[in-house]
Amino acid sequence: MNIRIDTTLERDIDLLIIEEFISEKDFAKIFLDAANITAPYTLETAIHSKTDAEYGESDIVFILNINGTRHALHIEDKIDAIAMKNQSGRYHERAKKDIAANEYDSYSVLIVAPEQYLNVNKEAHKYPYKVKYEQLRDYFATKKDVRSKYKVALIERSIINQKNGYQWEANPVVVRFCAAMDQYQKEAYPHLPFGTQAWWRGYKTLLTNATIVYKANKGYCDLQFSNTSAQDLSLKISDILPEGMYIASANKSASI
After folding, report:
1. What tens digit of pLDDT does each residue of 221-240 get?
2. Sign of the CA dihedral running 143, 144, 147, 150
3. How much is the pTM?
4. Burial, 42: exposed, middle or buried (Cβ in 10 Å; 0-12, 13-18, 19+)?
């Protein structure tokens, strides 16, 4: 069978890791061995995107019960995203805050990424424990079932997507703003879909071709329409466009 995947997002790998970690002990062992965890355990909790308004987001958190002690494994997942300033340090701050809140008793922090990213990214070097995407790919490559072949293709696509390990550093003010925005939505509007994990948060609307995009580094938000032009959009809504709003053109789209 030939499996072709156009692109892979970090969320795709996040969910793959969670699925396999909770269902396959041999897969979980890749991460536990990397963090020097060898004692028997039971998995109490698996969390995707654990967000703190002050210290940002942990991509994945597993809480293990090891001989009566709750140990959290915080995992940062990277394909080719920018390296946020002190991102590894904020993982420790979040974990310490969780311990103070009695969510668990101890923790480890780990990054999973393509080998190239781990080799060249300065922020990645600061994480105490590391797992390579290539280790995950090789794990599935030893299996003969079609499901594993699909996961090899998914991870391989991620490795190909990786672009030499970015050295950019994100603005910590923007990071805190996005984390606070996510936390507010979780508390006030948990039934709504969450935005894309980026500086420009994108939220789907009831219109299939319209997206609300908060542009954190520009100070405003757009209502973006795909597959249209600024001219066509202007013809439809110019008579009702409120003062202070204007129509802008983008690649194959237009925005208010």
Report:
1. 899 998 888 888 888 888 89
2. positive
3. 0.65
4. exposed
